[in-house]
Write a structure and sequence with these properties.
The protein has 377 residues and is of the alpha+beta class. It has two domains: 119 residues, 2-Layer Sandwich (Phosphorylase Kinase, domain 1); 235 residues, Aminoglycoside phosphotransferase (APH), C-terminal lobe (Aminoglycoside 3'-phosphotransferase, Chain: A, domain 2, Alpha-Beta Complex), CATH 3.90.1200. The protein has 14 helices and eleven strands. Helix 3 runs antiparallel to helix 9. The longest helix is centred in the middle third of the chain and has 18 residues. The chain is globular. The N and C termini lie far apart (49 Å).
Length: 377
């Protein structure tokens, strides 16, 4: 499964061999030959360093396109169509999302053997953070504010979208555990459909671990459970946005990558944005310097300029932040254990991501960030 010639982002912020082989020119030509609106591929311009799938930019006679390939165990055709239906809704609502191409059968989720492909038009704007890892702060509060405004616009556009929940737990950002009255029991109820996660958890005292993660959150659960359901992006990091330029006043021009999207709620997406952009998780040994409070507050302020949040919303956002990652962390455990068979990565997802991130919020830097968010209310 591993292609040692293609390097992707690792869990430690390093570059590692890819789990999924890079797309080849032969593969790309065969795929694009089945899309009437695109002529033959000329050249692969760039391979994405993201690790959970394979993707590239391809120059064709009909323009440059972005091709992403998933293994069917990660995304079936039906599961990918769920993302595409949400994208179509948001485009109809006026959100700046790249166009999806369909093949000769009218399918945007193109199943070819063990692989499932999607082809997007090249996004408008500058892909300013395309080499950035997911937990690296942007460094510019003005960009965070712009990202916050666009996130609020996306939530306005998502209103009224009533599709069922995603058909998979694998590598999607769902919120069932953070809204459950008993998260341990909620996970237990899911396990009959998640055999890979069951197999991993046999070696863990997962009930006590999960109870400990959620213990400080219990007082907020009723308010979280009452949040209005909304389909959300799920991975709101600056690297999933294109920009009008590289200046401080750059605006978001295109929203990318709906792979983690699911039916959750608006504050869940905003908390995820803070978790992705405002904390340098790979540099926690720097103490308070790893926390970018200005980025967190700019995200919130930008969001509030478009979609109001009252004082109780902002306090609930702070209460949610220490556990917003839990559902997705478990999906990563399942992915690494059951799909890529990477025992080390599965342990990192469980110990460092699932448990470690929650514990960090009880440290002085973590508490200072939560206090600053509450103070901004």
């Amino acid at each position: 499964m591993t292609d040692s010639s293609h390097r992707v982002h690792g869990l430690a912020g390093d570059e590692i061999a890819a789990d999924w082989p890079a797309l080849t020119e032969h593969e790309v030509r065969a795929l694009l030959a089945d899309i009437p609106s695109l002529a033959s591929a000329r050249q692969i311009l760039w391979h994405s360093p993201r690790p959970l799938s394979a993707a590239c930019l391809v120059h064709t006679e009909g323009g440059t396109v972005f091709i992403k390939r998933h293994h069917h165990r990660v995304r079936s055709g039906d599961a990918l169509r769920e993302e595409h239906a949400f994208i179509a809704h948001l485009r109809r609502a006026g959100l700046p999302l790249a166009r999806l191409f369909a093949d000769a059968r009218g399918e945007t989720a193109m199943v070819r053997g063990d692989w499932v492909y999607e082809v997007h038009a090249q996004a408008a704007g500058v892909d300013l953070y395309r080499e950035a890892i997911s937990w690296s702060p942007p460094g510019r509060a003005a960009h965070a504010a712009s990202a916050g405004r666009m996130l609020a616009r996306l939530h306005q556009g998502a209103a009224g979208y009533a599709a069922p929940q995603r058909s998979t737990h694998l590598l999607v950002a769902r919120s069932e555990l953070v809204t459950a009255a008993d998260p341990v029991q909620a996970l237990a109820a899911q396990l009959h459909e998640r055999p890979g996660l069951v197999d991993y958890l046999r070696g863990r005292d997962w009930r006590d671990d999960l109870a400990a993660v959620f213990a400080p959150w219990q007082h907020a659960q009723p308010a979280l459970a009452a949040q209005p359901r909304l389909w959300t992006h799920g991975d709101w990091h600056v690297s999933n946005l294109c920009w009008s330029g590289d200046r401080d006043d750059a605006a978001v021009t295109t929203v990318l990558d709906f792979g983690l999207s699911a039916a959750t709620f608006a504050l869940f997406d905003l908390a995820t944005a803070i978790e992705r952009n405002a904390i340098a998780w790979l540099e926690l040994d720097r103490g308070a310097a790893a926390v970018h409070t200005d980025i967190a507050l700019a995200l919130i302020a930008g969001y509030r300029r478009v979609r109001p949040l009252d004082r109780s919303d902002v306090h609930l956002l702070a209460d949610l932040l220490p556990v917003v990652h839990v559902d997705f962390a478990l999906s990563e455990v399942e992915y690494f254990h059951a799909v890529t068979k990477d025992a080390h990565a599965a342990d990192v997802a469980y110990d460092t991501f699932l448990r470690g991130h929650a514990v960090w919020f009880s440290t002085p830097p973590g508490q200072a960030l939560l206090d600053a968010i509450r103070a901004s209310a």
